[in-house]
Protein backbone atom coordinates (compact mmCIF):
# COMPACT_ATOMS: atom_id res chain seq x y z
CA UNK A 1 0.00 0.00 0.00
CA UNK A 2 1.21 3.48 -0.86
CA UNK A 3 0.13 6.77 0.68
CA UNK A 4 1.09 10.11 -0.89
CA UNK A 5 0.98 13.22 1.30
CA UNK A 6 0.12 16.37 -0.68
CA UNK A 7 -0.20 19.92 0.65
CA UNK A 8 -2.53 22.45 -0.94
CA UNK A 9 -2.05 26.17 -0.38
CA UNK A 10 -4.79 28.68 -1.24
CA UNK A 11 -6.00 32.09 -0.12
CA UNK A 12 -9.37 30.85 1.11
CA UNK A 13 -11.26 32.70 -1.64
CA UNK A 14 -11.62 29.83 -4.10
CA UNK A 15 -8.79 31.09 -6.28
CA UNK A 16 -5.69 29.36 -7.53
CA UNK A 17 -4.43 26.41 -5.47
CA UNK A 18 -0.79 25.42 -5.14
CA UNK A 19 -0.09 21.71 -4.64
CA UNK A 20 3.13 20.40 -3.11
CA UNK A 21 3.85 16.67 -2.90
CA UNK A 22 5.65 16.00 0.35
CA UNK A 23 6.41 12.31 0.74
CA UNK A 24 5.18 8.77 0.21
CA UNK A 25 4.66 6.02 2.73
CA UNK A 26 4.93 2.33 1.89
CA UNK A 27 3.25 -0.32 4.04
CA UNK A 28 3.34 -4.06 3.22
CA UNK A 29 -0.14 -5.59 3.11
CA UNK A 30 0.64 -9.05 1.77
CA UNK A 31 2.74 -10.17 4.76
CA UNK A 32 2.37 -7.52 7.47
CA UNK A 33 4.29 -7.68 10.73
CA UNK A 34 2.19 -8.45 13.78
CA UNK A 35 1.00 -5.23 15.41
CA UNK A 36 2.39 -3.00 12.63
CA UNK A 37 -0.58 -0.63 12.21
CA UNK A 38 -0.47 3.02 11.30
CA UNK A 39 2.53 5.31 11.14
CA UNK A 40 5.52 4.74 13.36
CA UNK A 41 6.96 7.46 15.54
CA UNK A 42 9.90 7.93 13.17
CA UNK A 43 7.56 8.26 10.19
CA UNK A 44 5.37 10.72 12.08
CA UNK A 45 8.38 12.85 13.00
CA UNK A 46 9.53 12.87 9.35
CA UNK A 47 6.03 13.87 8.21
CA UNK A 48 5.83 16.72 10.72
CA UNK A 49 9.23 18.01 9.70
CA UNK A 50 8.31 17.92 6.00
CA UNK A 51 5.01 19.71 6.61
CA UNK A 52 6.79 22.35 8.68
CA UNK A 53 9.44 22.83 5.97
CA UNK A 54 6.89 23.32 3.18
CA UNK A 55 4.64 25.50 5.34
CA UNK A 56 7.47 27.81 6.46
CA UNK A 57 8.81 28.25 2.92
CA UNK A 58 5.37 29.06 1.50
CA UNK A 59 4.54 31.39 4.39
CA UNK A 60 7.79 33.34 4.02
CA UNK A 61 7.42 33.56 0.22
CA UNK A 62 3.93 35.00 0.49
CA UNK A 63 4.99 37.36 3.29
CA UNK A 64 7.82 38.75 1.15
CA UNK A 65 5.69 38.91 -1.99
CA UNK A 66 3.16 41.24 -0.32
CA UNK A 67 5.91 43.63 0.77
CA UNK A 68 8.17 43.76 -2.24
CA UNK A 69 6.27 46.49 -4.04
CA UNK A 70 6.99 50.07 -3.00
CA UNK A 71 4.13 51.64 -1.08
CA UNK A 72 4.57 55.01 -2.81
CA UNK A 73 5.09 54.17 -6.49
CA UNK A 74 4.17 50.47 -6.61
CA UNK A 75 7.40 49.40 -8.38
CA UNK A 76 8.85 46.00 -7.47
CA UNK A 77 12.13 46.33 -5.58
CA UNK A 78 15.12 44.61 -7.21
CA UNK A 79 16.86 41.70 -5.52
CA UNK A 80 20.26 42.55 -4.07
CA UNK A 81 21.31 39.20 -2.54
CA UNK A 82 19.97 36.21 -0.66
CA UNK A 83 21.29 33.40 1.48
CA UNK A 84 20.00 30.21 3.02
CA UNK A 85 19.11 30.40 6.71
CA UNK A 86 17.87 27.84 9.20
CA UNK A 87 15.09 28.16 11.73
CA UNK A 88 14.71 25.81 14.70
CA UNK A 89 11.09 24.98 15.54
CA UNK A 90 9.29 22.51 17.76
CA UNK A 91 8.68 20.34 14.67
CA UNK A 92 12.29 20.26 13.55
CA UNK A 93 14.82 22.45 11.81
CA UNK A 94 13.73 24.07 8.55
CA UNK A 95 15.60 26.03 5.88
CA UNK A 96 14.41 29.13 4.04
CA UNK A 97 15.73 31.82 1.73
CA UNK A 98 16.46 35.18 3.35
CA UNK A 99 16.48 38.00 0.78
CA UNK A 100 17.63 41.60 0.69
CA UNK A 101 16.23 44.11 -1.78
CA UNK A 102 17.59 47.33 -3.13
CA UNK A 103 15.76 50.45 -2.05
CA UNK A 104 13.25 51.93 -4.46
CA UNK A 105 14.56 54.74 -6.66
CA UNK A 106 11.66 56.99 -5.64
CA UNK A 107 13.28 57.57 -2.24
CA UNK A 108 10.47 56.19 -0.11
CA UNK A 109 12.70 53.67 1.67
CA UNK A 110 14.66 54.91 4.71
CA UNK A 111 17.78 52.79 4.01
CA UNK A 112 19.79 51.61 1.05
CA UNK A 113 18.78 47.96 1.40
CA UNK A 114 15.56 46.43 2.67
CA UNK A 115 15.40 43.15 4.60
CA UNK A 116 11.71 42.10 4.89
CA UNK A 117 12.35 39.44 7.56
CA UNK A 118 14.43 41.65 9.83
CA UNK A 119 11.65 42.46 12.31
CA UNK A 120 9.73 39.21 11.88
CA UNK A 121 12.29 36.43 12.28
CA UNK A 122 14.62 37.94 14.86
CA UNK A 123 15.82 34.70 16.51
CA UNK A 124 17.35 31.48 15.24
CA UNK A 125 14.66 29.53 17.09
CA UNK A 126 10.94 30.10 17.50
CA UNK A 127 9.45 31.38 20.73
CA UNK A 128 7.41 28.19 21.15
CA UNK A 129 10.59 26.09 21.11
CA UNK A 130 12.23 28.33 23.71
CA UNK A 131 9.19 28.12 26.00
CA UNK A 132 9.09 24.34 25.56
CA UNK A 133 12.77 24.13 26.50
CA UNK A 134 12.13 26.32 29.54
CA UNK A 135 9.13 24.29 30.72
CA UNK A 136 10.96 20.98 30.43
CA UNK A 137 14.18 22.46 31.82
CA UNK A 138 12.32 23.64 34.91
CA UNK A 139 10.69 20.23 35.38
CA UNK A 140 13.63 17.86 34.86
CA UNK A 141 17.43 17.96 34.44
CA UNK A 142 18.61 19.57 31.21
CA UNK A 143 20.16 16.42 29.76
CA UNK A 144 17.03 14.42 30.52
CA UNK A 145 14.88 17.12 28.91
CA UNK A 146 17.00 16.89 25.78
CA UNK A 147 16.46 13.11 25.67
CA UNK A 148 12.68 13.52 25.99
CA UNK A 149 12.54 16.14 23.23
CA UNK A 150 14.62 13.99 20.86
CA UNK A 151 12.43 10.99 21.64
CA UNK A 152 9.08 12.62 20.86
CA UNK A 153 9.79 15.49 18.45
CA UNK A 154 11.81 15.90 15.25
CA UNK A 155 15.36 17.07 15.76
CA UNK A 156 15.76 20.85 15.83
CA UNK A 157 19.42 20.83 14.85
CA UNK A 158 22.54 20.95 16.96
CA UNK A 159 20.71 21.75 20.20
CA UNK A 160 22.05 20.17 23.37
CA UNK A 161 21.52 20.52 27.11
CA UNK A 162 23.38 23.85 27.10
CA UNK A 163 20.81 25.31 24.69
CA UNK A 164 17.99 24.16 26.96
CA UNK A 165 19.75 25.70 29.95
CA UNK A 166 20.25 29.03 28.18
CA UNK A 167 16.60 29.15 27.07
CA UNK A 168 15.46 28.25 30.59
CA UNK A 169 17.52 31.05 32.16
CA UNK A 170 16.32 33.58 29.56
CA UNK A 171 12.64 32.70 29.99
CA UNK A 172 13.05 32.72 33.79
CA UNK A 173 14.40 36.27 33.61
CA UNK A 174 11.49 37.39 31.42
CA UNK A 175 8.98 35.88 33.88
CA UNK A 176 10.71 37.62 36.78
CA UNK A 177 10.42 40.99 35.02
CA UNK A 178 6.86 40.44 33.74
CA UNK A 179 3.81 42.06 35.24
CA UNK A 180 1.92 39.86 37.72
CA UNK A 181 -0.89 37.75 36.38
CA UNK A 182 -3.38 38.83 39.03
CA UNK A 183 -4.53 42.42 39.22
CA UNK A 184 -4.93 44.54 42.32
CA UNK A 185 -8.13 43.49 44.04
CA UNK A 186 -10.43 46.34 45.04
CA UNK A 187 -12.53 44.23 47.42
CA UNK A 188 -11.43 43.11 50.86
CA UNK A 189 -9.68 39.77 50.80
CA UNK A 190 -10.42 37.10 53.43
CA UNK A 191 -7.94 36.60 56.24
CA UNK A 192 -4.87 34.85 54.88
CA UNK A 193 -1.52 33.80 56.28
CA UNK A 194 1.88 34.51 54.79
CA UNK A 195 4.28 31.66 55.43
CA UNK A 196 8.01 32.25 54.95
CA UNK A 197 10.71 29.60 54.93
CA UNK A 198 14.00 28.90 53.18
CA UNK A 199 15.52 26.11 51.11
CA UNK A 200 19.11 25.52 50.09
CA UNK A 201 20.85 24.44 46.88
CA UNK A 202 24.53 23.77 46.39
CA UNK A 203 26.53 26.61 44.88
CA UNK A 204 28.51 25.98 41.71
CA UNK A 205 32.25 26.57 41.67
CA UNK A 206 32.97 29.78 39.81
CA UNK A 207 35.61 29.30 37.11
CA UNK A 208 35.94 32.93 36.10
CA UNK A 209 39.36 34.54 36.33
CA UNK A 210 40.01 36.28 39.62
CA UNK A 211 37.01 34.72 41.38
CA UNK A 212 38.79 31.81 43.09
CA UNK A 213 39.68 33.83 46.21
CA UNK A 214 36.09 35.09 46.54
CA UNK A 215 34.67 31.60 46.03
CA UNK A 216 36.98 30.17 48.73
CA UNK A 217 35.98 32.97 51.07
CA UNK A 218 32.27 32.19 50.57
CA UNK A 219 32.87 28.53 51.25
CA UNK A 220 34.92 29.37 54.33
CA UNK A 221 32.11 31.58 55.65
CA UNK A 222 29.62 28.76 55.39
CA UNK A 223 28.00 30.11 52.19
CA UNK A 224 28.66 27.08 50.00
CA UNK A 225 24.89 26.93 49.45
CA UNK A 226 22.45 29.36 47.89
CA UNK A 227 19.50 30.32 50.07
CA UNK A 228 16.12 30.25 48.33
CA UNK A 229 13.44 32.23 50.15
CA UNK A 230 9.92 30.89 49.59
CA UNK A 231 6.74 32.68 50.64
CA UNK A 232 3.25 31.18 50.34
CA UNK A 233 0.06 33.17 50.79
CA UNK A 234 -3.16 31.27 51.42
CA UNK A 235 -6.21 30.84 53.56
CA UNK A 236 -6.97 27.53 55.22
CA UNK A 237 -8.22 24.80 52.91
CA UNK A 238 -7.17 26.46 49.65
CA UNK A 239 -4.22 26.15 47.30
CA UNK A 240 -1.56 28.73 48.24
CA UNK A 241 -0.04 31.21 45.83
CA UNK A 242 3.73 30.98 45.96
CA UNK A 243 6.60 33.41 45.50
CA UNK A 244 10.30 32.52 45.62
CA UNK A 245 13.66 34.17 45.08
CA UNK A 246 17.26 33.00 45.09
CA UNK A 247 18.72 36.51 45.01
CA UNK A 248 20.50 38.12 48.01
CA UNK A 249 18.44 39.74 50.75
CA UNK A 250 18.50 43.29 49.50
CA UNK A 251 15.98 46.09 49.21
CA UNK A 252 14.96 44.77 45.80
CA UNK A 253 13.89 41.46 47.34
CA UNK A 254 11.49 43.27 49.68
CA UNK A 255 10.12 45.23 46.73
CA UNK A 256 9.43 42.01 44.83
CA UNK A 257 7.65 40.54 47.84
CA UNK A 258 5.52 43.70 48.14
CA UNK A 259 4.58 43.37 44.47
CA UNK A 260 3.66 39.72 45.09
CA UNK A 261 1.41 40.67 48.02
CA UNK A 262 -0.22 43.49 46.06
CA UNK A 263 -0.92 41.29 43.05
CA UNK A 264 -2.45 38.73 45.42
CA UNK A 265 -4.90 41.29 46.81
CA UNK A 266 -3.25 42.08 50.16
CA UNK A 267 -3.42 45.82 50.25
CA UNK A 268 -3.08 48.39 52.97
CA UNK A 269 -4.63 48.45 55.58
CA UNK A 270 -5.08 44.69 55.47
CA UNK A 271 -3.14 42.90 58.15
CA UNK A 272 -0.61 40.31 57.03
CA UNK A 273 -0.17 37.40 59.42
CA UNK A 274 3.30 35.87 59.08
CA UNK A 275 3.85 32.25 60.08
CA UNK A 276 7.44 31.34 60.88
CA UNK A 277 9.45 28.68 62.68
CA UNK A 278 11.12 31.26 64.91
CA UNK A 279 14.20 31.86 62.77
CA UNK A 280 15.06 35.48 63.45
CA UNK A 281 17.04 35.79 60.20
CA UNK A 282 13.72 35.68 58.33
CA UNK A 283 12.41 38.68 60.24
CA UNK A 284 14.38 41.01 57.98
CA UNK A 285 12.48 39.75 54.96
CA UNK A 286 9.09 40.98 56.21
CA UNK A 287 9.94 43.77 58.65
CA UNK A 288 10.09 46.38 55.85
CA UNK A 289 6.68 45.45 54.42
CA UNK A 290 4.21 48.37 54.47
CA UNK A 291 1.66 46.32 56.41
CA UNK A 292 0.76 45.62 60.01
CA UNK A 293 2.51 42.27 60.30
CA UNK A 294 1.75 39.85 63.11
CA UNK A 295 4.30 37.08 63.67
CA UNK A 296 2.99 33.69 64.76
CA UNK A 297 5.22 30.85 65.90
CA UNK A 298 4.76 27.66 63.90
CA UNK A 299 2.92 25.04 65.96
CA UNK A 300 4.52 22.17 64.03
CA UNK A 301 7.96 23.04 65.43
CA UNK A 302 6.53 23.41 68.93
CA UNK A 303 4.80 20.04 68.56
CA UNK A 304 8.02 18.31 67.53
CA UNK A 305 9.82 19.67 70.60
CA UNK A 306 6.97 18.62 72.87
CA UNK A 307 7.04 15.18 71.30
CA UNK A 308 10.68 14.79 72.33
CA UNK A 309 9.75 15.68 75.91
CA UNK A 310 6.92 13.15 75.77
CA UNK A 311 9.26 10.40 74.57
CA UNK A 312 11.81 11.24 77.29
CA UNK A 313 9.22 11.25 80.07
CA UNK A 314 7.47 8.03 79.01
CA UNK A 315 9.94 5.67 80.82
CA UNK A 316 9.72 7.85 83.96
CA UNK A 317 5.98 8.52 84.07
CA UNK A 318 4.93 5.76 86.49
CA UNK A 319 5.30 6.56 90.18
CA UNK A 320 3.96 8.97 92.85
CA UNK A 321 6.50 11.71 93.57
CA UNK A 322 4.56 13.94 96.02
CA UNK A 323 2.01 13.22 98.75
CA UNK A 324 -1.05 14.38 96.77
CA UNK A 325 0.19 13.17 93.38
CA UNK A 326 -1.35 10.44 91.26
CA UNK A 327 0.30 7.26 90.07
CA UNK A 328 1.13 9.06 86.80
CA UNK A 329 1.92 12.45 88.32
CA UNK A 330 4.81 13.25 85.98
CA UNK A 331 2.77 12.42 82.90
CA UNK A 332 -0.32 14.32 84.15
CA UNK A 333 1.76 17.43 84.77
CA UNK A 334 3.28 17.26 81.30
CA UNK A 335 -0.19 16.98 79.72
CA UNK A 336 -1.32 20.12 81.57
CA UNK A 337 1.89 21.92 80.54
CA UNK A 338 1.25 21.00 76.88
CA UNK A 339 -2.39 22.14 77.16
CA UNK A 340 -1.46 25.61 78.41
CA UNK A 341 1.05 25.99 75.61
CA UNK A 342 -1.72 25.04 73.17
CA UNK A 343 -4.16 27.64 74.53
CA UNK A 344 -1.47 30.34 74.80
CA UNK A 345 -1.56 30.84 78.59
CA UNK A 346 2.00 32.04 79.11
CA UNK A 347 1.99 32.32 82.89
CA UNK A 348 0.43 28.87 83.33
CA UNK A 349 2.83 26.95 81.11
CA UNK A 350 5.85 28.65 82.66
CA UNK A 351 4.60 27.66 86.14
CA UNK A 352 3.95 24.07 85.11
CA UNK A 353 7.33 23.86 83.34
CA UNK A 354 9.04 24.79 86.63
CA UNK A 355 6.99 22.19 88.52
CA UNK A 356 7.77 19.58 85.87
CA UNK A 357 11.51 20.26 86.23
CA UNK A 358 11.15 19.93 90.02
CA UNK A 359 9.42 16.54 89.65
CA UNK A 360 12.17 15.32 87.36
CA UNK A 361 14.74 16.29 90.01
CA UNK A 362 12.76 14.31 92.61
CA UNK A 363 12.62 11.36 90.24
CA UNK A 364 16.40 11.44 89.89
CA UNK A 365 16.90 11.62 93.69
CA UNK A 366 14.67 8.61 94.34
CA UNK A 367 16.06 6.42 91.57
CA UNK A 368 19.71 6.98 90.71
CA UNK A 369 19.57 4.18 88.12
CA UNK A 370 17.31 6.34 85.92
CA UNK A 371 19.56 9.39 86.12
CA UNK A 372 20.48 9.23 82.42
CA UNK A 373 16.81 9.13 81.36
CA UNK A 374 15.99 11.96 83.77
CA UNK A 375 18.75 14.16 82.40
CA UNK A 376 17.52 13.44 78.91
CA UNK A 377 14.03 14.53 79.93
CA UNK A 378 15.38 17.70 81.57
CA UNK A 379 17.36 18.56 78.46
CA UNK A 380 14.28 18.14 76.23
CA UNK A 381 12.17 20.20 78.65
CA UNK A 382 14.67 23.06 78.90
CA UNK A 383 15.04 23.02 75.11
CA UNK A 384 11.33 23.60 74.50
CA UNK A 385 11.07 26.17 77.31
CA UNK A 386 13.98 28.21 75.95
CA UNK A 387 12.45 28.03 72.46
CA UNK A 388 9.10 29.29 73.74
CA UNK A 389 10.63 32.07 75.84
CA UNK A 390 12.76 33.34 72.95
CA UNK A 391 9.61 33.59 70.78
CA UNK A 392 7.12 34.45 73.50
CA UNK A 393 5.73 37.43 71.59
CA UNK A 394 4.75 35.14 68.71
CA UNK A 395 2.72 32.71 70.81
CA UNK A 396 -1.08 32.76 70.42
CA UNK A 397 -4.14 30.75 71.45
CA UNK A 398 -3.67 28.00 68.86
CA UNK A 399 -6.92 26.25 69.83
CA UNK A 400 -9.08 29.31 69.10
CA UNK A 401 -7.04 30.14 66.01
CA UNK A 402 -7.64 26.67 64.60
CA UNK A 403 -11.36 26.68 65.45
CA UNK A 404 -11.94 29.80 63.34
CA UNK A 405 -10.30 28.11 60.35
CA UNK A 406 -6.88 29.77 60.36
CA UNK A 407 -3.55 28.10 59.71
CA UNK A 408 -1.29 27.36 62.67
CA UNK A 409 1.66 25.65 60.90
CA UNK A 410 3.97 26.31 57.96
CA UNK A 411 3.42 22.93 56.35
CA UNK A 412 2.02 24.56 53.21
CA UNK A 413 5.26 26.53 52.82
CA UNK A 414 7.50 23.52 53.44
CA UNK A 415 5.59 21.51 50.84
CA UNK A 416 6.05 24.39 48.39
CA UNK A 417 9.80 24.36 49.08
CA UNK A 418 9.85 20.64 48.36
CA UNK A 419 8.06 21.16 45.05
CA UNK A 420 10.09 24.16 43.94
CA UNK A 421 13.55 23.42 45.29
CA UNK A 422 13.78 19.86 46.60
CA UNK A 423 12.51 17.80 43.68
CA UNK A 424 14.43 19.67 40.99
CA UNK A 425 17.46 21.30 42.54
CA UNK A 426 18.64 19.55 45.70
CA UNK A 427 17.14 16.23 46.82
CA UNK A 428 18.74 13.40 44.91
CA UNK A 429 20.15 15.81 42.31
CA UNK A 430 23.93 15.82 42.23
CA UNK A 431 24.32 19.24 40.68
CA UNK A 432 25.51 22.71 41.55
CA UNK A 433 23.91 26.01 40.64
CA UNK A 434 24.89 29.58 39.99
CA UNK A 435 22.72 32.18 41.66
CA UNK A 436 21.32 33.47 38.35
CA UNK A 437 20.54 29.96 37.10
CA UNK A 438 18.91 28.94 40.36
CA UNK A 439 16.81 32.11 40.45
CA UNK A 440 15.58 31.58 36.87
CA UNK A 441 14.63 27.94 37.47
CA UNK A 442 12.87 28.96 40.69
CA UNK A 443 10.80 31.56 38.82
CA UNK A 444 9.76 28.99 36.23
CA UNK A 445 8.79 26.40 38.83
CA UNK A 446 6.80 29.00 40.76
CA UNK A 447 4.92 29.95 37.58
CA UNK A 448 4.16 26.28 36.92
CA UNK A 449 3.06 25.71 40.53
CA UNK A 450 0.78 28.79 40.46
CA UNK A 451 -0.60 27.70 37.04
CA UNK A 452 0.49 31.01 35.51
CA UNK A 453 3.05 29.72 33.01
CA UNK A 454 0.65 29.43 30.05
CA UNK A 455 -0.76 32.92 30.53
CA UNK A 456 2.71 34.43 30.80
CA UNK A 457 3.70 32.57 27.62
CA UNK A 458 0.71 33.94 25.70
CA UNK A 459 1.57 37.47 26.79
CA UNK A 460 4.88 37.26 24.96
CA UNK A 461 3.75 34.96 22.15
CA UNK A 462 -0.06 35.20 21.74
CA UNK A 463 -0.19 32.42 19.15
CA UNK A 464 1.28 29.72 21.44
CA UNK A 465 -1.25 26.95 22.04
CA UNK A 466 -3.74 28.14 19.40
CA UNK A 467 -5.31 25.76 16.89
CA UNK A 468 -5.84 27.59 13.60
CA UNK A 469 -7.51 24.63 11.91
CA UNK A 470 -10.96 23.70 10.60
CA UNK A 471 -11.41 20.35 8.88
CA UNK A 472 -10.62 17.60 9.86
CA UNK A 473 -10.40 18.91 13.45
CA UNK A 474 -14.16 19.45 13.62
CA UNK A 475 -14.93 16.13 11.99
CA UNK A 476 -12.94 14.23 14.62
CA UNK A 477 -15.44 15.35 17.28
CA UNK A 478 -17.98 12.83 16.00
CA UNK A 479 -18.39 9.70 18.08
CA UNK A 480 -17.45 6.26 16.79
How many distinct helices?
15
Mean pLDDT: 83
Q: Structural class of the secondary structure composition? A: alpha+beta
Order of helix and strand elements from N to C terminus = EEHEEEHHHEHEEHEHEHHHHHHHH
Largest sheet: 5 strands, mixed
The N- to C-terminal Cα distance equals: 25 Å
From the structure provided, what is the oligomeric state, counting identical versus distinct chains? single chain
Protein model, in words:
It is elongated, with a radius of gyration of 33 Å. The strands form three sheets. It has a five-stranded mixed β-sheet, with helices on both faces. Strands 3-4-5 form a three-stranded antiparallel β-sheet, sandwiched between helices. Strands 1-2 form a two-stranded antiparallel ribbon. The protein has 480 residues and is α+β, with helices and mostly antiparallel strands. It is built from 15 helices and ten strands. Among the domains are: 123 residues, no CATH class; 95 residues. The C terminus is likely disordered. The longest helix has 25 residues.
Give the topology.
Blueprint: E1 2-9, E2 18-26, H1 41-65, E3 79-89, E4 92-102, E5 113-114, H2 127-139, H3 142-152, H4 161-177, E6 193-202, H5 212-220, E7 225-234, E8 241-245, H6 251-263, E9 271-276, H7 283-286, E10 292-297, H8 299-313, H9 329-343, H10 346-366, H11 371-390, H12 398-403, H13 411-426, H14 435-449, H15 453-460
Parallel strand pairs: 6-9, 9-10
Antiparallel strand pairs: 1-2, 3-4, 4-5, 6-7, 7-8
Helix pairs in contact: 2-4, 2-14, 3-4, 4-14, 8-11, 9-10, 10-11, 13-14
Amino acid sequence: MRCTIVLEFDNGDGGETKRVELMRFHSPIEEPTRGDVGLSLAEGKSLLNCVQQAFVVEQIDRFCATRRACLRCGVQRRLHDNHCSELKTTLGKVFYCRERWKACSCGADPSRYISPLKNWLTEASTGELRWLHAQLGATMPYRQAKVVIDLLLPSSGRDNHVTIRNHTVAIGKSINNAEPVYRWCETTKPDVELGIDVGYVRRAHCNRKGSGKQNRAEVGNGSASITVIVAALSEAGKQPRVWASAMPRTKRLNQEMIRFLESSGCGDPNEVVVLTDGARDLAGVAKDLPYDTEWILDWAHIGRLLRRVDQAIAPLAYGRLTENGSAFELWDLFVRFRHYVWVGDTEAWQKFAARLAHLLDLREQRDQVMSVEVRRGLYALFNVVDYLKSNIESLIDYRTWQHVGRRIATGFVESSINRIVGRRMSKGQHMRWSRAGAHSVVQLRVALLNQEFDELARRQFPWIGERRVTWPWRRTSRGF
